[in-house]
């Protein structure tokens, strides 16, 4: 160990470059322990390896934070080139999360589940109190599509207003931590459209049956008219109706 005239301390070197410099050609490490080194109650070790990896681990050797020489970071694991930040466990943010670019392709929707990103699921395994939802065409007719400009980046867009949708059907909106209407569940609007289409299809089938019945009635009436006409003409060939038919 060496202490320079300027107060710099070197361990494993006589030329410290900072207030404390620890040098080892293979792995430089120092420990912070809560009790004896042989059996510490708890502690942390800070290690720098020759390959450039910096590791903060517990006294049992479990890695808590690791940073490799290329700047890739891992929390609770080992840095991987597959991601600039690898977290072995849940990642929670109390503020906003900004994503510059999303992965270019995918075949599943993403939903929020109690603040966690999750695959959108519709399995009965995750549901209880399942009941039929019947509103359809009448509900759709009360929704008001609008065009608008986003305040954040001034882009022009179209859609629905969450507050207006909440007045029509509260199940079609998401809410923030204050209980205010925040977003529209556009995928649920499609569920209402299924009911609306079924209602219209029922109306079309009912009208087709009515038209078919009316057509049969007209055909029957026409047959009766033709029979009466034939009877009249057989008894009075000079009748105007009969002359016209000839």
Q: What can you tell me about this protein's structure?
A:
By secondary structure, this protein is α+β, with helices and mostly antiparallel strands. The protein folds into two domains: 2-87, no CATH class; 132-246, no CATH class. 28% of the residues lie in helices and 25% in strands. It is built from four helices and 15 strands. The protein has helices spanning 137-142, 162-168, 186-235, 240-245; strands at residues 2-3, 9-11, 20-22, 27-33, 43-49, 54-58, 63-67, 73-75, 85-87, 110-113, 116-119, 146-149, 156-159, 173-175, 181-184. A six-stranded mixed beta sheet has the order 4-5-6-7-8-9, with no helix packed on it. The chain is rod-shaped, with a radius of gyration of 40 Å.
Question: Which SSEs are present, and which pair or pack?
Answer:
Layout: E1 2-3, E2 9-11, E3 20-22, E4 27-33, E5 43-49, E6 54-58, E7 63-67, E8 73-75, E9 85-87, E10 110-113, E11 116-119, H1 137-142, E12 146-149, E13 156-159, H2 162-168, E14 173-175, E15 181-184, H3 186-235, H4 240-245
Parallel strand pairs: 2-3, 8-9
Antiparallel strand pairs: 1-2, 4-5, 5-6, 6-7, 7-8, 10-11, 12-13, 14-15
Number of discrete domains: 2
SSE string, helices as H and strands as E: EEEEEEEEEEEHEEHEEHH
State the low-pLDDT regions, or none.
none
The overall pLDDT, averaged over residues, is 90
**Approximate helicity band:** 25-40%
| Fraction in beta strands | 15-25%
Q: In a few lines, what is going on in this structure?
A:
The chain has helices at residues 137-142, 162-168, 186-235, 240-245; strands spanning 2-3, 9-11, 20-22, 27-33, 43-49, 54-58, 63-67, 73-75, 85-87, 110-113, 116-119, 146-149, 156-159, 173-175, 181-184. It is α+β, with helices and mostly antiparallel strands and 246 residues long. Strands 4-5-6-7-8-9 form a six-stranded mixed β-sheet, with no helix packed on it.
